Model the fold of this input.
Amino acid sequence: MPEIVEVETFRRQLEPILIGKRIIEVKVNHLRSIRRHKSVKEFTNLLLGKDILEISRFGKYLTFHLDDGSFLNAHLRMSGRFLLNDDPSSDPKHSHIILTTEKNRILFIDPRTFGEMWVTLTPTPEISRGIDALTSSNIDLQKVIMQLASKSTKAIKAVLLDQHYISGIGNIYADEICSLAKINVSRRICDLKDREIYQLIRSIKIILKKAIKLRGSSLRDESFLDLNNNIGSFQKFHRVHAKAGQQCSDCGSEIVKTKIVGRTSYFCPKCQT
Done:
């Protein structure tokens, strides 16, 4: 699933291509990708002739701000992505939505069809749940984590994955954040000491910023490809994720695999206590 890092990568790549451009054609090839709308015609009419003024991100959501005050929202879910492709004859399979401006064609590709795009006249409340993991200040992150630490018995990884608290972090980056912070993924958040909370916050910022610089993580299935169809590079620097049975780069112990809230999780049993 694309996480905050991959969605932010798309935002940064889409901005210079789409800002100030007018949508002149909209093509929908799969109704499930616009399932909040009654029809293709409704979705298309809300977009045609509109200029894109801004592209923002909150958590895993992307929002295209249009010149009439409306918003085109997108969530990639499990397998969604965007692709810049100006040659219609080479559109890949599962190109469910195609937005054309005066200069470019942007494809919304989603093999599993869990992702979606939809237009709203006002900001969508569901988008602003929790606080954004990347743009929120350390103080705001500390406030949320401290409040949870005072009352919750959830595992720290479960907290990181819960979009109602901190928005944008998914399975890969939760593992990597806990590894850098030297905190076991199954530790209860209420058991964290103050210094461990500070380490956790610092690790959130370090991991996310480095991963964005390297355009995200593409695992062996290459399920994440960026706007230009290139893989990310952060997987080369993964500390623990998808490395069960391999040696920890810090201590040499064997990385182990477990399940946290139904998600496969990886950690070093020696470094992460």
About this structure: The mean pLDDT is 96. The two ends are 27 Å apart (CA to CA).
